[in-house]
Amino acid sequence: MMINRCCLEKFAEKLPSLPSSLTKSDLLTDSFRLHQEDELGIYYSPHNEYINRAASIVIAGITPGFSQMKTAYETAAESLREGRSLEQMAADTKKAAGLSGSMRHNLITMLNLCGLPQALGIQSAAQLFGDLRHMLHTTSVIKYPVFVQQKNYTGYRPAITRSPILSTYAFGHFPAELDKVTGPALLIPLGKAAETVCGTLIGQHGLRNLFCLHGFPHPSGANGHRLKQFSQNKEQLERQIRSFASLGV
Description:
Structural class: alpha/beta
Mean pLDDT: 93
Order of helices and strands: HHEEEHHHHEEEHEHEH
Number of helices: 9
Distance between the termini: 20 Å
Helix content: 40-55%
Strand order of the largest sheet: 1-2-5-6
Strand content: 5-15%
Low-confidence stretches: none
CATH topology: Uracil-DNA Glycosylase, subunit E
Shape: globular
CATH architecture: 3-Layer(aba) Sandwich
Largest sheet: 4 strands, antiparallel
CATH class: Alpha Beta
């Protein structure tokens, strides 16, 4: 397990000032803002500080949304109230907030349907978020929550490559994090924006410890095309997962 202890210590000092029930007006403030670029703001959240180096499955979204950020803060506050260490708090927030909510349910359903459990020799992809959590690392191309006019950033408007700060995270910090996963591991980018970044990184850095899955739809309920996309890509996804399984991971 790896964490960014310096950032967590600064964050933990600010937690006592927060109310128990959190809204955007509590979290999208100067106190938690890391960067501002035109109408785009990046805000701190603790749940992507934890890195599971031994993971055999790495799932990467584009950036955490507000619901994940809210869950992370509430979990962090509860964890520290219980006297847990910063390392434990980071792990707690990762488990609670990483791909949380309805998105997690949709993700598990699609992973089950395209044969991931069979490839791993497990019963259900849900176990990756439960008793087999040690096999999973969840993360984001831009590790901290990004908002445009206080709305969740979706990977477009602006495009990552048109934003200096987003490019720094996607093509600097993100590959540095992936390099910490010892592998071999299956990298599952969620949606086209995340997949495009991963494809660029493979071309630039190789990422030889990772086998990248192509064509997996973003599981967000806001993605109204995900079922059609999944149906169209299901056979291709199954073949790729079987190829990964043949590596003997």
